[in-house]
Structure prediction request, 386 residues.
Amino acid sequence: MLDAVLLILREVLEAALILSLLLALSQKLHLQFRWSLIAVTIGTIGSWLLAHYAYEIADAMDGTGQELLNAALYSVVILSVIALGLFICPLAFKSHLENNLTQKKIFASPSGKKLIYRLCIVIVSFSLAREASEIWIYLSAFTHDTEMLSSALIGSAIGAGIGMSLGASTYYAFTFMQKSYFIPVFLAIITLLAGGLSMQIAKQLMQIGWLDSATPLWDSTFLVDEHSWVGELLYALIGYDSRPAPIQGIFYLLTITPVVSACAWHAWQLRVKTHE
Amino acid sequence: MNNSIKYTLFASLLLGATTKAEVPTFTLEIRDHLFYPAQLVVPANTKVKLIIINRDATPEEFESYELNREKIIMGGAKAIIFIGPLLPGDYPFFGEFNPKTAQGLIRVEN
Prediction:
């Protein structure tokens, strides 16, 4: 049962943290929460489909289907996170009054709101589908053994419960934060999160031999072990890897570049304006 | 247009070169939630192809933090995972769905 708790927690944690971050953003920007229901529904159905067709997916493209599909799912989430980051970015570099005006300009328009809702739905549903498909596959092993199935299901419920409460705590921690702090912190976290996901793409491509792995850039296992709780949490939040390959580092840097450059540009603009 | 053809050719050559080059291949089997052999010796500083055959009816996930690899292998299915080039040392792996029993080690030697 403990195995099930840990496995499900690992799978649920990332999606729960992403969901709570985006819900906190919605709360700060006075947006509706209805998108989250749509996202969780699509994500759950998607995860079931991925699990149901797992054989076919794994066999496709000369046995590289699983990795290529994962890489594609990661890419969609990363592009949506970057788009959201670029959209939110101006809010982090304005004075309070200006900020309200910018926010009104961006979010009063239905198209601006719609864009945010759509991005949030894609980010959460794609992340959830990928993560949760593994849960269905795991549980499918126990369908012929009712005793083991019930134990695995109880374990899963506990794991999912812990994951969701961690997500809820994250949500409340962020909603108590002042908006002027929240936006920069939010931007930093989602940028690092996208970087972490891009390392997973590199990993998928190394696994099928399309990219060559080399000696890891560093080994920080002595500092934070990926097996440990802190390691798992950091992995879910910013894609922590204790032994990243050099190519993973390149993917990370390329992914964080757009939002980091946009922030730098806005910061520079703000400086120019305040000096005028 | 011409350029794009050139790039495509170049890319396919590169991909062909990496997949077609002689890559040492090793086979692992999963039976009753155990890995056979539980220890595998592979050459250092070489890209290696692992073929993992799941003889069980239930799915398993090959996972290794040390090798930085994870892959689900459905019941009765076969999976291919490339690892390395690796430095000499021991690289443990396990089956995430049966972590207590399914454990193994890849020993990398010069």
Observations:
- The longest strand of chain B covers residues 25-31.
